[in-house]
């Protein structure tokens, strides 16, 4: 069995999502939380899925259904399409992703645009909307060699694009 993290980061699971699932550390970004929630499905860490929900999202949480989905699906991969904000110090962020899985031999893809919120430095899943088709870009993509929009005078790749 591979030691690679199922979230697709290319890192070992112990140095990636396992540290969040075990409670050794909190996910530092909305994307890291998204990746760790996917890994929680793969590793069947159902409590983590509940614990990383925002309070208002816990009201509709059906642990039995979540457990059944995690246990019956063969998790095939995660692709992050885009992120908006969700960095350390941000209050909110959005991550658009696709999770591919198989149930009874039928391969399916769940594509979602998820909303996250940071409370006391801890990222929480708020809500998500199913998405079809390519990701919708809300802003013009900033080129690596363009001036950074923060006003530092540096190129984007040497400033906020790191």
TrEMBL record:
<dbReference type="Pfam" id="PF17775">
    <property type="entry name" value="YchJ_M-like"/>
</dbReference>
<dbReference type="InterPro" id="IPR032710">
    <property type="entry name" value="NTF2-like_dom_sf"/>
</dbReference>
<dbReference type="InterPro" id="IPR004027">
    <property type="entry name" value="SEC_C_motif"/>
</dbReference>
<dbReference type="InterPro" id="IPR023006">
    <property type="entry name" value="YchJ-like"/>
</dbReference>
<dbReference type="Pfam" id="PF02810">
    <property type="entry name" value="SEC-C"/>
</dbReference>
<protein>
    <recommendedName>
        <fullName>UPF0225 protein JCM14722_24860</fullName>
    </recommendedName>
</protein>
<dbReference type="InterPro" id="IPR048469">
    <property type="entry name" value="YchJ-like_M"/>
</dbReference>
<comment type="similarity">
    <text>Belongs to the UPF0225 family.</text>
</comment>
<feature type="domain" description="YchJ-like middle NTF2-like">
    <location>
        <begin position="29"/>
        <end position="128"/>
    </location>
</feature>
